Amino acid sequence: MPKELDNTNKVYLSMENKHTITARIAPRYQKAKKKEKKIILDEYVKLTGYNRSYATYNLRIHGKKKHIKNSDIILVADARKKSYKRSKPVIYDDKVKKELTFIWRSLNYICGKRLAPYIGEYVLKLENSNELSLDPIVRDKLFKISSSTIDKLLKSEKDKFKLKGRTHTKPGTLLKREIEIRKGISWDENKPGFLEIDLVGHDGGDVSGEFAYTLDSTDICTQWTETRIIRNKARIWVTEALDDIKRVLPFTVYGIDSDNGAEFINYHLLSYCKNNDIKFTRGRSYEKNDSCHVEQKNYSIVRQFVGYHRYDTKEEINLITKLYYLLRFYTNFFQPVMKLIRKDKLDNKNVKVYDKAKTPYRRIMEHPLIDEALKQKLKEEYDSLNPIELRRSIVYLQKRIYKFVREKNKDKIKYVSKEEYERILIENKNKNLSKEYCHDAPF
Q: Does the pLDDT of residue 405 top 80, yes or no?
């Protein structure tokens, strides 16, 4: 029964009455289904005035055995209910994991969502290149494996370390009014030939003096990517690299889109685009996501393969040039990518919907606007490639590049092995712990 009423017509119950209500409602709540629980909970909160979270907790634990340990209430399971562990047959065993790990490493550690749709085609390519021989049962399992299972199996193998780079973009303001800001209607993004371009600096943390840059270009429709190393970001080298990219691309270039850096916003590039009948647009100021396609490639291709070191010598630039030549085949023919199709709104949340992961080569082969003669030429090129051999050559060049870096920096940086680094890290940690808990230290 209510004890008293206030001016707001709220009913205040004694704790005894609240306990009585809880005792009557809790059994019904614990047996109810999810939708029914919501109705019962609304009724209970209205009667008692409890916070909704506490009310749920109160109804859930009522009538169950419990004891208090270290200020926490712990429920004691009913002795009549026997707990048992559900045993599931192991489908993807160690044999599958071993072959999957080999495939994953050869594809530069891509995620399960990119690997799962492509794994069947890639296994066939490796078998035709005599790089892989699978047991029929393991082969069948690999063809059926899902992206979530791939990520689960490879969890212990994945590298968790991430590094961040440094931007070298300085605004070029003189020609901004003459260069159109890219809009959705200004480009036909379903047609190959519209490129996003960007520069990646290789300063290694020291921005003084002259150092190399990578010109990165990505076709929005097919995700075909070309990279070129240039000695610095002078306009002449940028234009020369763009001209070389335009010459080797398997389609005509109709437009390029850049950020607002002075290396792009200049008369040289504007004249080059006008003379070659290329539409030149730029992104909005301070809106980095306007060039999201090429920005993603800056990490997944440039940073992952050449790292964050400083490159400023002729030998390093020559080696990276050879590396990019191999990467052109490796990334475009054997690296599947996903494209964002649309964004849906579900329960006030934006849900991104992607298409099936495909390599840029496969996207070109399926595109109706690409000439059949060009497709045949690309197919012959694809048939002649061995992805494992490409991967070996890339790793060999990476080792040579890093050898130059070590030799150049031997007086500045002490390079140690991973095992030595971990040993030093543990020793320093133990020293800090011993200092923290030393009771003999003077105060």
A: yes
Mean pLDDT of 139-153: 92
Whether residue 153 is found in the same domain as residue 186? no
Gap between the Cα atoms of 127 and 143, Å rounded: 14
Task: List C-alpha distances in Å: 356 to 22, 266, 379.
Answer: 52, 39, 21
Kindly state whether residues 287 and 232 are assigned to the same domain: yes
CB atoms within 10 A of CB 174: 11
- In a shared domain, residues 330 and 252: yes
Give Cα separations from 82 to 60, 77, 105 (angstroms): 20, 9, 44
Instruction: Please report how the helices 136-144 and 119-128 are oriented relative to each other, as an axis angle in degrees rounded to 10.
Output: 150
Q: Say whether pLDDT at 177 is over 80.
A: no
pLDDT digits (tens, 9 = 90+) for 278-336: 888 876 766 666 667 888 888 889 998 998 899 989 999 999 999 999 999 999 999 99
Examine the domain organization and report whether 204 and 309 are in the same domain. Answer: yes
Intra-chain end-to-end CA distance of the chain, in Å: 63
The Cα 306–Cα 397 span in angstroms is 10
Q: How buried is residue 80: exposed, middle or buried, by Cβ count under 10 Å (0-12/13-18/19+)?
A: exposed
Q: What is the reported pLDDT for 162?
A: 43
Q: Which residues contact 2 (CB under 8 A, 6 or more apart)?
A: 11, 12, 13
DSSP 110-164: --HHHHTTTHHHHHHHHHHTTS----HHHHHHHHH--HHHHHHHTGGG-------
Domain extent, residue 107, equals 94-157
Which residue has 């991967």 as its token pair?
A: 391
